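Why Spermatogenesis-associated protein 20-like TRX domain-containing protein? Reviewers of the renewal asked for a concrete example.
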Amino acid sequence: MSSSASSSSPHGGRKPNRLTAEHSPYLLQHAHNPVDWYPWGDEAFEKARAKDVPIFLSIGYSTCHWCHVMEVESFENDEVAKLLNDWFISIKVDREERPDVDKVYMTYVSALHGGGGWPLSVFLSPDLKPLMGGTYFPPDDKYGRPGFKTVLRKVKEAWETKRDALKRTGNLVIEQLRDALSAKASSQDLPNDLAVVSLDQCVEKLASSYAPNFGGFGSAPKFPRPVEDYIMLYKFRKHMEAGKESEALNIKKMVTHTLDCMARGGVHDHVGGGFHRYSVDACWHVPHFEKMLYDQGQIVNVYLDTFLITGDEYYSTVARDILDYLRRDMIGKEGEIFSAEDADSAEYEGAPRKKEGAFYVWTSKEIEDTLGENAELFKKHYYVKSSGNCDLSPMSDPHNEFAGKNVLIERKPASLMSSKSGKSLDEYSQILGACRQKLFDVRSKRPRPHLDDKVIVSWNGLAISAFARASQILKSGPTGTRFNFPVTGCNPVEYLEVAEKAANFIKTNLYDGSSKRLHHSYRNGPSKAPGFLDDYAFLINGLLDLYEFGGKIEWLLWAVQLQVTQDELFLDKQGGGYFNTPGEDPSVLLRVKEDYDGAEPSGNSVAAINLIRLSSMLDAAKCTDYKRNVEHLLAVFETRLRQLSIALPLMCCAADMLSVPSRKQVVLVGQKGSAEFQDMVAATFSSYDPNRTVIQIDPSNTEEMGFWDSNNANIAQMARSSPPGTQTVAHVCQDFKCSPPVTSPEALRELLNKTVAAASSAV
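Here is what the prediction returned.
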């Protein structure tokens, strides 16, 4: 953790460089550096070849704290700029705009040093082979590492004296990485035990790393990694179906305690909603303050699933908190959802430097002046102290940067604190909400952190999923609930509208209807980069949720078409699995099959689940093709699933989903616009079941019936054979048989809950 050295002035009167013509917020941040930057492209490559000099490649993103630090220390430094301009061709890349380029050189640096990060600093030959690299370099020798000026001189010297050896090493490294990262399956047949072994092993390893004091899996720094909670909840359901209630409750306790501590911690923005990237300490208190869209969407879904399992509105309220933050601060005029908010901002207008967390932290006096008579209650609740509260761990503020400042944290739940104050929980919560509103109004007058208003398809796909699912799941809460700021308490249907607008923006601005291809991102127009595997897989997942939870056939149609394009562009038909890029850009030296489910899930894991979902909707021929591709994909990663399953939690779930003999189908037939139909949809999603497919169909809609006639005649026949009239009918099918149709939400809920009880009693 370090205070930011990033400048709050636009560019200090410096002349612009060629990055001023770019759209990326990150590249534009460097458009007035004295460094003669080039964007990634042929102009830079040809210049390096013509001058016969190495390339300095700098990769980062606009909300990256240490990227800001290195810019101010080195790239705004005239001495450093002269060395770069005299000896190198310097290229600047936004990792969010070109994840394919970032993947190549991050893989190289990680292999070289055992880890990586941003800013990524790599030296390349003119033919783009890596020569040497690292991450952040201070300008001068310190922190036990060579300074950037020293590094530049050494690279220049090595290029002049050991060029052939450097080139040979670079070529060898790329070939070795290419072989290692494009694995092929030796067989398409999956061993029968793979699903059970990988799932159980991953859950066991996570459970052994569980931190009972503050929740989470592993030690500080603490990152929300939603795929970990996803597999734990998935295993909870498996245990319940197998009648292993004590094991199930143990898992539930781990997840709920983790989510409780996250939501009460400083990693959660109590005043404005949403979650920061991670906490530097073990107690989720002092965060790295940037907010990323990919975190918000995934975290919402974990809280929604936990709400379904527990029935506790606390979790649904946290989900609303995040979604309302996104609606208020992260959505453009046409429904597009932006990428991120920076950690750094100026403490006041005109401040010479930005500081990390300046927008979010409070002095005790600021709170007293703002809240008046309720200040003491609020300070006790959020552990606010005149000396500052970043003292819960030696890791919270090791350099004393937040002396006198407070990061709001709830050390005890509101129910306990209200009791101590002698107030009812409702009254106490209303007071806190009114206080947060006042602080929000004060905070809104501070200089805001930079907003990265780039629109990334993959991250929008994750958010679309969250908004679509919330639109139905939140209907399960009791009526008349009172919500407090920053939660708006809107009708959940409004969240569906957000999801549909975001999907429409992508279809209008980032999808080519003639080629059926996606662009990766948008800012003042589509980026030059094509859509990557994550863009297709994450968007298909979001569209399937839009269809299942919202019911419009257009989203299913588009998902099916995108799956066709994804298979054409990325599928390794011989070796199995999906590559991360289309392989059409010769400047991208590696085509990788990614499997790591990290801060974002891997494209292969999401694609596998998409295929399983699609296979349960469409006819036998397509179902067979989809499942064959999943089997082949899992075969590629079989060794990793067995030996390092904790790195692949979502793929472990995919393997188990594939092993389920028959995925549960709920087919709802009726007039979709009717209140009766919507009540049945809400009933369908009132319980947690990751192995369920929902099909909504209106027999009077010719487009829908035409789709099902062409893609699954059984579904079409089910719709036609349902009783005529306005009555909504639900068919629940599993294990190759269907239950008698039901016509009321109560009967449907009972039927869906019975399947778990039946499985449990059968054991």
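The radius of gyration is 27 Å. This is the kind of structural detail the renewal will allow us to pursue systematically.
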